[in-house]
Amino acid sequence: MTFSILSVCTGNICRSPVAELLLTSELEPLSTVRVSSAGTGALVGSGIPDQAQRLAATAGVDPSGHVARQYDVAMLREADLIVAMAREHRRTVVEAFPGAMRRSFTLRELARIADVAESSLPKAVRDAGASSAEEGMRAAVALAATLRGTVPPPASPEEFDIVDPYRRSDETYLRSFEELAPAARKVAMYLRTAATIAVAS
After folding, report:
1. In the predicted model, what is the mean pLDDT of the chain?
2. What is the DSSP code string of 70-134?
3. Which fold would CATH assign to domain 3-200?
4. Residue by residue, what is the 3-state secondary structure of 44-65?
5. Hey, how many other C-beta atoms are within 10 angstroms of the C-beta on 35?
6. Alpha-carbon distance 13 to 38, whole Å?
7. Between 152 and 183, whose confidence is greater?
8. Predicted local distance difference test score (pLDDT) of residue 31
């Protein structure tokens, strides 16, 4: 079995592919995880802009082979976890496939929930009867869904979003990356922890 993560933004050339690469890198020890990305209005066939490539390289990932693609409902149906780069993308995903609601978060929203959920993770994994890495990660996603709305919100709802840097300044690309990278690492750590608990149980 595979645990599938889908990262979603608009064009699938800046935010979602960088999140895909970072999550892939952070979750590499878990051979059963597959991370991909797509866009709600993808610039199909395009690569990642130079500014985003340079920033991704600072995190030790190579974005040069990325080719943008458009999302479809089959991708949403198959994903165990959907991380949207902004609330508008999560809204589009859930409208297209309502069954994805409890598996869809913005990346920064899930990172925020993970901070609170970690202490409850061992019990959630045990209660789910999870005995494999994939089952543990699915239990972690389910726990996050139950906590949505109970975690204190940020000062501004915009803090759930990662700024779109496309065709903007180098400073905006940097801001976008600095919003994205810590959230991706936090989400990966949360999933790795759940996987470890499940395998050890």
Report:
1. 95
2. B--HHHHHH-SEEEESSHHHHHHHHHH-GGGGGGEEEHHHHHHHHHHHGGGHHHHHHHTT--SHH
3. Rossmann fold (3.40.50)
4. CCCCCCHHHHHHHHHCCCCCCC
5. 24
6. 9
7. 183
8. 82
Q: CA 123 to CA 160: how far, in whole Å?
A: 27
pLDDT in tens, 9-40: 999 999 999 999 999 999 998 888 999 999 99
Angle between helices 170-200 and 50-58 (to 10 degrees): 40
Q: What is the pLDDT of residues 118-158, one digit of tens each?
A: 999 999 999 999 999 999 999 999 999 999 989 888 889 99
Secondary structure (3-state) at 1? coil
Q: Name the strands in the sheet holding 104-106, side by side, starting at the edge strand that comes first in the sequence.
A: 33-39, 3-9, 81-84, 104-106
Please report how many Cα atoms fall inside a 13 Å half-sphere around the Cα of residue 145, on the Cβ side. Answer: 16
How far apart CA 10 and CA 59 sit, in angstroms, is 22
Q: What is the dihedral of CA 55, 56, 57, 63, to 10 degrees?
A: -130
Look-up: residue for tokens 């239990």?
A: 139
What tokens appear for 70 in the block?
Answer: 């458009």
pLDDT of residue 201: 74
Q: What pLDDT shows up at residue 63?
A: 86
The tokens describing 42, both together, are 């993808």
Query: Which pLDDT score is estimated for 33?
Result: 96
Please classify residue 119 by burial: count the beta carbons closer than 10 Å to its beta carbon, then call 0-12 exposed, 13-18 middle and 19+ buried. Answer: exposed
Which residues 6+ apart lie within 8 Å of 61 measured at CB?
A: 18, 21, 22, 24, 25
